[in-house]
Write a structure and sequence with these properties.
Strand content: under 5%
Distance between the termini: 24 Å
Helix content: 55-70%
Number of helices: 7
Length: about 140
């Protein structure tokens, strides 16, 4: 699953920074990659793009005053969106989604990104409906 998240991040990041559509980003990925895109990567990328407004609605209140989702570094923004999508739409336990986002941030973003995402996504987890929270 981690590789699937990484591939989804690659696609979402490419679409974000280039201003292209998901279809264009998927086509570019297919052209440049030597392996097929995992189904879960496509699910994540399509889900994030389809529900970005609702996902950003969870992220916005978790940010410091004066900050917006658009001001976040692009990698962190897409990692946060993937994590929120997984928590809300895939019913992934928040602790798992947060840990996965932090792990990818440690590998792919700034030194402060993992802690930043942990704080933001931890706040988001408190906003989720009870059905999205892990049992027990």
């Amino acid at each position: 699953m981690r590789k699937a998240r990484k591939y989804a991040l690659d696609i979402l990041y490419a679409a974000d920074v280039s201003g292209s559509s998901l279809a264009e980003a998927l086509t570019a990925y297919a052209t440049m990659s030597d392996h097929p895109l995992p189904a879960y990567s496509r699910t994540l990328a399509e889900g994030v793009m389809t529900h970005d407004y609702l996902i950003d609605g969870y992220l916005a209140p978790a940010l410091a005053e004066g900050w917006t989702v658009e001001r976040m570094p692009a990698v962190d923004r897409q990692l946060a969106r993937i994590a929120v999508y997984e928590m809300v739409y895939e019913n992934l336990p928040p602790a798992v989604a947060i840990s996965e986002a932090q792990s990818l941030a440690e590998e792919l973003s700034t030194d402060a990104s993992a802690a930043f995402l942990g704080g933001v996504l931890g706040h988001v987890a408190t906003l989720l409906p009870a059905s999205a929270e892990p049992e027990g």
